[in-house]
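Your task
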Amino acid sequence: MSEIITSLKAIRGAADEAIQLAQLGETADLFDRIDFMAEQILSTASIAMLRYILTTEHAASSYNQPVLVDTETNIAYGTADVLPDGTPAMQLYEKLSQSEDPKMSPHKAALLIQRYATEAIEGLRTQGATADTEHRLIDLRALACDIAKDLQPIQDESSDPG
């Protein structure tokens, strides 16, 4: 299972626990869960921001086969290619295919982060959030939104009609 999926599940679990703690009135533990969610969101984002990713969401991908994409330049590499630093692309293909779900793009991970954070926030607000909890929830939502913006897919210049 990929690190991203594991982190996303941790965020979701922490959100569910936070809602249960709010129902019980356990404020200190609730804050710990919210802080843990924030840590997991940052951790997931850092994993998702790897320079090279395997993805089928690139114009160079055909027949649903993932390509290795440099997230800084949006250049795709095949298994026979050599990366700019001299590393055979096949080495990275093998490493990433073992640790990542090729269908889990950084943007998809960011959207899931945002969705899970929003579900937690809405769930906690229905329990009557205190002012202190509300400030943490606002920070959590802002963090999730910033990550979603940062991990938007790179526009492929080859598909630009102009």
Observations:
- Strands lie at 52-55, 67-70, 76-77.
- The chain has one domain: 3-152.
